[in-house]
Structures are given as C-alpha cells and as structure tokens.
C-alpha cells in the first residue's frame, strides 16, 4: 500500500496531506496492517521528519517499508542535498530494523524534478515528455543524476536502494539493489502490460511495482485517466481559501465522471492476481487516502470519483468513527484478497 504523509508538487505548493498528524498516521497504518492485511507500505512525502515518524510506526506494527523521500520541482543539486539529509536520518532506523527497509532515491524524476526534461513547471515537462522519450534525449541527464543520487545515499544509508521509475524511463538498473516501476494498467495497455515486467524480472533482480491503481468511476481503466491529475476547477479550490466565505464554497470538478466503486474494486483485485501470476516481488496500491479530493454525493462536486484512494475523504466515518473518511468497496475487496493470500500461501510479496 502507498501511504502519503505529505507530497507537494513543489516545495511551496499545497501539501497533499493537510490532515496529517503523527497520531493519525499511526492509526491509519494500524488499519492498513490489521484490517487491510497488507505486509508493506511505500511511505512517501516531502518532510523527512514525517517520513521517519511514519516509517518507525509502520515497522513497529510489522510492516516492511519502502522509504520514499520526494522533493518535487527542485533542481538536481537541491535534490541531492535533500537525499543526503534523508538518508542520514533513515540509517539509524535501518539498523534498528535490519532487512525491513528499501530506500528510494526518487520518483519519476524526468517529470517531477527540474533538469531532465526541459521545463520549469511540471505541466511544461509533461507536455514535452513523449517527444523527449522518443528521441532519447533525456537519458544521459537522468542516468547521470541517478548515479550521483545512489552515490550520495550510499554514503549514509547501508541498506537496499531503489528508484520508482516511470515506465518509459531508460534506467541503468545496475545501480540499484531493487527495481521499482510505477506501472499502471489501462484497457489499451493490457496486452503488453506483462511484457514490461517480464523483461525486468529477467535481470534477476527483485522487481516491485511501486504504484498501480484505479479511480472509483466508470472510466477507471480508460487511458486518459492515467494523466488526469486533480479533477477540479482551480477557481473553486482558490475560493475555499477565502476567509469566512470559503467555508461555504465546495470544490467543483472540471469533468463529471460517473462514480463506480464496484469497478475500481474489481479492477484492483484483477491486477493483484495478475501481478501475483507474473511473480513480482512487491506491489503498492496507489493509494490509501487523498484528502484533497473529497467525496460528495453530487457528481458535480465529487472529486473522489477520480481519486485512486481506497477510502473516500470528507465525511465522518461509520466503519471507523475516529476517522474523517469511509472505506470504498475496494478497501473491503482488497482486504479480503490479501487475507486469503496470506492464509493460503503464507507471507506474500510486499503489497
């Protein structure tokens, strides 16, 4: 399971976990371990202190941890300094819990870091992405940075190191102990989806799918959903920040997608079974929660319909009265699938 303690599109951008507290993280990680029956979490976020606190809580609960510090929108130089600081903090935790942590040096850096694909802003880099992938012009810069990143991290951190790659990135996996790939499935990519993983498994290294998932809508497996982003009209988000009046403004979706929690649940379990058959060593569902996309019964305001989370935020829980969210159908279906896998086959690949 991917657990976000606060990513942000840039160091000054809105944090994705405005609801974060150490107590909340501990409680949600407990639910992930005991009720979802997961055996590992990929903990992502900007603040190294939050990452360490959540990682230690997860490890104490018996979850293995993929430790993913992510400074988005920064230069390579600033990113390397950030990784050095994060790896120094992670090493004492690794010594306390040996063989339980993988350190990730980044996530899809071609688009989330400046300096690989041209463009100061994320949206600019995404627009140029396919052109540069086809030409291969980004590869030398990406490989140079990843060499520097692994060297910097290994000075402080002495456990396994990996990277969460975009499927199209040409990564030198000789640098890493574990191969990580964010590999989403759509109706258009189903026939070639296993081939990508089989090629990586042929290297002989452990392979983890570090992100996969589907939104809770009828278009869940449509190719365009992979690049949708936050489905909200920007002015409605800005209006919420206004003093006093903002409390009465509800965010409004850009495009209405009909809600279908059953389809999200079915697709997730089908992909879990597919990954199990292929034989990957780990798989992390994107994601547990996403508070920036709250649920609303009115489709015009239901941001959660396109969120990939297993819980819908924005409502006081009934299944978990102490939480400000309610499980989606996918939560229960995935939990049952993981429970059965553990009962039938013993310890499973990290998931």
Explain how this protein is built:
This protein is of the alpha/beta class. The chain has helices spanning 22-34, 48-60, 76-96, 109-112, 122-135, 139-156, 193-201, 234-240, 261-278, 329-345; strands at 2-4, 40-45, 64-69, 101-107, 161-166, 179-182, 207-212, 282-285, 311-313, 325-327. Helix 2 (48-60) links the parallel strand 2 (40-45) and strand 3. The chain is globular. The model has no long low-confidence stretch (mean pLDDT 92).
Q: Uncertain runs with pLDDT below 50, 5 residues or more? A: none
Q: Which descriptor suits the 3D outline?
A: globular
Please list the strands of the largest sheet in the order they lie side by side. Answer: 1-2-3-4-5-6-7-8
Biggest sheet, open or closed, and with what strands and sense? 8 strands, parallel
Instruction: Kindly provide the radius of gyration, computed on alpha-carbon positions and rounded to a whole number of angstroms.
Output: 19 Å
Q: Helical percent range?
A: 25-40%
Number of E strands: 10
Give a brief rundown of this model.
This protein has helices at residues 22-34, 48-60, 76-96, 109-112, 122-135, 139-156, 193-201, 234-240, 261-278, 329-345; strands at residues 2-4, 40-45, 64-69, 101-107, 161-166, 179-182, 207-212, 282-285, 311-313, 325-327. It has 351 residues and is of the alpha/beta class.
Feature tags:
single chain; 351 residues; alpha/beta; 8-stranded parallel β-sheet; two-stranded antiparallel sheet; 10 helices; 10 strands
